[in-house]
Structure formats: C-alpha cells, structure tokens
Amino acid sequence: MANGEALHGVGGLTYDPSRRALPPELNVLIALVAITVVFELLNRYNFGWLWNDLPFQQGKSFLFNTRDNLDTLFNEQRINIILLQVAITGIIAIGVTQVIILGGIDLSSGSIVGATAMIAMSFAQTATVNGNPNPKAIFGEGFMDLWVLVPILVGLTCGLIAGCVNGRLVAYTRIPPFIATLGMMVSARGVAKWWSNGNPVSFPTESYASLSNGDMLGGMTFGLLSWSGQNPALVFFLLAILFHLIMTYTLYGKRCYAIGSNEAAARMSGINIARHKVLVYTIAGLLAGVAAILLTSKTLTAQAGMGVMLELDAIAMAVIGGVSLTGGRGSIIGTVLGALIFSVIISGFTSIQLDAYYQEMVKGAIIVGAVVMDQWRQSKRGRG
Amino acid sequence: MAAKQAGARIVSDFILETRGLTKHYGGVHALTDASFTLKRGEHVAIMGDNGAGKSTFVRQITGVEQPTRGEIIFDGNAHLFNSPIAAREAGIEAVFQTLALADDLDVPSNLFLGREKIRWNLGPFSILDRRAMREATMAALVKTGVKIPNLSNTIRNMSGGQRQCVAIARTAAFKSKLVIMDEPTAALGVQETAQVENIIRTLKEAGEPLILISHNMRQVFDLVDRIVVFRRGRIVANLAKEDTDGQDVVSYITGAKTGAEFEGAA
Ligand SMILES: Nc1ncnc2c1ncn2[C@@H]1O[C@H](COP(=O)(O)OP(=O)(O)OP(=O)(O)O)[C@@H](O)[C@H]1O
Ligand SMILES: [Mg+2]
C-alpha cells in the first residue's frame, strides 16, 4: 500500500498515496507572508495616487533595516516589538488553543492575568526604593525581598487554581464553558481590584525584573547566544514547542482532539472526559499565570486592569491560526502563526501611523473576520 | 478493574444474563424488565421497530449508561459496569449504532480510541506508540477485509460505509468474550454487507458469542441461532430460528402477537 496506486476504500476508487493534502497551517503561513509584504509595500512606496494625504511618510521599510548601519538586515527594533507583543498574549493563546480544540472556550484568561499579576507582584516587592521604604508595599517587612522563586510559585499557583476551578465547573456541572469562564472572568477581575483596593503594586526585586528583561537565552547557552530583554518571546517559543509536542505525540493531545471532535464517542470509548477537561482548563490557567509573571516583570508594575480583553486577542490568534471553534481541529503551530499575523497587523498599523481608535476598530473586525473564516471553512468542509 | 463485583461466582453456561433490566429517561420508559440470556458461543439477533429500546438495552450492558434497575450477569459474575472501559476490560466489545468515532482523527486513532498503545508511560502525558498502532490497524483491516489505503485520512472525509467498517474493525481488532453489533450493516453496500456477515460467521466458528441488532430479516435468518423481539421497551418474544419464520417475527414486532411467556408484558 505504501507505493504506487491503491484502491481507495470500499468503493474501489483509485487513490494515489504520493499526493498528500497539504497541511492547513501552510495557508496561515502564506497569509502571514502576504500581510507582511503588504505592509512592506505600504511603507516603501507612495500610494498617493490611490489614497490622498497619507498620514505617514513613505520610503521606509516595514521589515528591513533601511538606515545606513548595514550590520543588521532586518529592522530589529520592529521585530523585537512584534515578538514582545506576540509573546505574552501568545502564551495565553497556547492554553486557549487546547481548550478550544477540546471543544470548550476560555474567556477568563485575561482576568486571570490581572488577578495573578497583582498577587504575584505582591510577593516580588523590594523593601527599599532609592533608600526609602517601598511606597507601594502590600505586605510587611517579612514579605519583602523574597527569593524570586516565591512570586513565581505564587503566580503559577494562582493561575493553576483559577484554571482548575474553571475545569471543575465545566466538567462537573452542566454549565456551558462560555458561562463558566465568563463567571471566572468577572470574579478574577474582582479579585484583581480587591487585592490592593485598586492601587498598583510596583517596585519588584531586581531578580524578578530580570525574569523578562534579562537574557535567559544567554544563560541557557552559556553566553553563546544572546537575546536580551526578549525572555517572554523565548518562553513563548519554548512553550509552543513543548505543547506542540504534547498535542502531537501524547495521550493528552490525542484526547483533546477526540473529545473536541466527538464527545459522546470519546465517552463511549471509555475516556474519562471530566478528568481530562479539568486538566486542560488547569493548564490554560497555568499558562495565564506564566503570562502574568512575564508581563509584570516586563512592566515592573501590576495593575488591576492588566490583561483586559487579552482573552479575546488570544482566541482571535487561535482562530486566525486555523483552530476551529467547534473543537477537534487546529494546532499549536497554527496558533503561533496566527499570533504572528495578529501582531504583524497591529504593528503594521502603527508603522503606517494609523490612529489608535482605528486600530481598535480594525482589531475588532479581525476577530469577527477570523470567526467568519472559521464558519466558512466549516461549511466548505461539508459534512459534520 | 473498575467493575464492581458482587456475590460469588455462579456456575453457568450463560455468557450474559440480564434480570429485570430497566432504564427510564425521566418519564420515558425506554427499557422495562428486560430479562435476557445468551449462551456461550450463541449468536442472537435483537429485532424490533424504531424506538423499541434495542440500543438502550445495549447501552446498559456496555456500561455507557447505568440502568435504573436490574441485574447484569456477565461470564458468571454479577456486574454493574460503571464505564465503557470496565465493560470492555471484562471482555465486551461493541459497535454502537452511532459508531462512536471521532471525526477529526485518523483511522488508527479511532481504532485505539480510549486504549491507545503507549511507548513511555507518563500518566496523562504518556507518549503514544504511533507506529505500533498503525501496524495493528493494518493487521486488523486485513483480518476483516476492510479496504482503507490511506490510514491517515480523517474519519470525516470517509464515506458512511467506510466509517462503519472502521467501527467494525475496531471490535474485531481486540480479543473479547462477547461482541455486540448495533445495526452494523445499516449503511453498507452489497459487497460490504457480505464482508461484515463473513466477519460474523468467523466469530461463530471461533465460538465467540454475538448479539446482533438488525432490521434485515434475511440477514438475521442467515446468521443467528435465536431471535429476541423488543416492542415498546419490553422483550415480547424469544424465538429459536427453527421454530419461526419472517412472517411470524414481523407479527411479534408489530404487536399482532406476543410470546406466551411474555403475556401481559406489552
Ligand atoms: N438519552 C435519552 N433521553 C431520553 N429518551 C431517550 C434517550 N435515549 C433513548 N431514548 C428513547 O428511548 C426509546 C428507545 O430508544 P432506542 O434508541 O433504544 O431505540 P432502538 O430500538 O435502538 O431504535 P432504532 O431501531 O431506531 O435504533 C426511544 O423512544 C428514544 O426516544
Ligand atoms: Mg437503535
């Protein structure tokens, strides 16, 4: 059967195994390249004949370094911004992807980031700022200047608990995931505001600040490589690889796809659906915790409003990347590409100096457009 | 083993016995007092109109649902299968009417759904042995004569008959003590139906007991030893093949007749 033509199935049609269908991620990759090219052209050439009074200056490049210092090919600053933007939301999107493949949805990740940011940051504060006591101190002396692992563990635990509550609500009650995680979205935001009565939590220890701003790649490769200040992007890519492997090669991944594509069949086949759902939502919460830690470490402060609407960005990234909202289809690679598309669009709009209001409008359109595209893909697929 | 075992081992030549098996869905009495026996090596057909409770009966035996009332004695032990896995571990393999396939997965994943082969055991994150599953799938398909060359195709892209073949290959691929098939040939063409009937004959030769649910009178009379008729959630007839004919069975199905021992049942 491995070579040459074979009869296809019970109807006896001819089937040529050498001609495999292309992976759906390829389309997403092509879209990514196309969108990048569009912004490159918009930046370079004068489209005045098409569009009067362009608000930005042409003759620059979107992606490449056009200044005279020829030691870098790409516009590194821009690419770093794109990657940083992508990283925090992308980490959340990795979790959201698994939840959606499972046939669920998670609206709470942005709020979990908010609550986790506040709580974790409170355990990361320094005792003294420029010789004065920390003006934003949440706890007393005993909880200042803690070992960096303490806020990390606190943050991960927060995310884990929130995700586990989500999972249990979805798995053991008959509440639809949309409602269960909507409840968590509102409650976790409440926790974030209640934690310090709405005050920001600031001034972390140096070691906590270096989580995002340090050079982890340098540390990991003993100085061979260096990627300073890009730890969130590094963590994002490492997590993406890890979860790609998990989704592809392990029981966990197989069960996500099985439950998402036919929950009744999965149950009849003896898969413990409730337990698996709890696990998946817990991992999504945990990843939101990771995102919160990296975000606060990057910005050096935590605010109750952190991560607002991040869940929608994450869902949009997944859907743009080909994850089907009806469950069972999609991949981590797709989501990573979707995340890059999302960020390239945002950063592209900045590069052509599109007003922030317009940016939000367009972002909304992208989210709706991605879902429409998903519906369209469904109907094109026909059956099911 | 998740199956609860109650009472001592009862010596019996029955592989399966149900006593007073009853299932209510809210107000719907889908199954009422079903008492049924199956001898070792025996092939029995269950017939009855749409909604008679045949599939409901199967779901109670296979642990997919918990009966409202009643007893199941399988292989000499009183069992209450609390999950499909428990029933399967006890040795019951079933092809469900709904096929129970995951549309977005390929053939090997569906064949091994819920009992994947593992290379390294890491709990829920165990690494799958994809090659072994693929090879076992090939073997199962060859054994059952099902032709599906592209195993990596998802079930969604297959014809109704191919899907049914995958579901049947799934029961045939594993060792079992009892096979249950709920309308296995419903979507199949002439050749494929013959193929499935051959699989069933092979089971008979191997002495494996079978419960076959079918609306196809010819098929039933060709394949089984005994016919049990369900009507409105109750068993209304238990007929040895030699003592009955198609006309007779139809009159039980439609309610024109009710078996003597079931008088007053329905
Ligand atoms: N989960 C459920 N909830 C409520 N009612 C149900 C449920 N499952 C089955 N029923 C009802 O139980 C009755 C028996 O259904 P069942 O599926 O056992 O019929 P069947 O004999 O298999 O019919 P068919 O030949 O059409 O497959 C039907 O009236 C059906 O509507
Ligand atoms: Mg049925």
Protein described:
Chain A has 384 residues and is mainly alpha-helical. Chain A has helices spanning 25-44, 76-101, 109-122, 149-172, 177-195, 206-213, 216-220, 231-249, 251-261, 263-268, 273-299, 310-320, 332-351, 356-381; strands at 6-8, 13-15, 128-129, 132-133, 201-202, 301-302. Chain A is 61% helix and 4% strand. The longest helix of chain A is centred in the C-terminal third of the chain and has 27 residues, at 273-299. Chain A starts with 5 loop residues before the first strand and ends with a helix. Chain B is α/β, with parallel strands linked by helices and 266 residues long. Chain B has helices at residues 54-61, 84-90, 107-111, 130-144, 160-172, 190-205, 217-223, 246-254, and strands spanning 4-6, 14-25, 28-39, 43-47, 69-74, 77-80, 92-95, 118-120, 127-128, 178-182, 210-213, 226-231, 234-240. Chain B has a 6-stranded mixed sheet with strand order 7-10-11-4-12-13, sandwiched between helices. In chain B, strands 1-6-5-2-3 form a 5-stranded antiparallel sheet, covered by helices on one side. Chain B is globular and about 55 Å long. At the A-B interface, β1, α9 and α10 of A face α2, β9 and α5 of B.
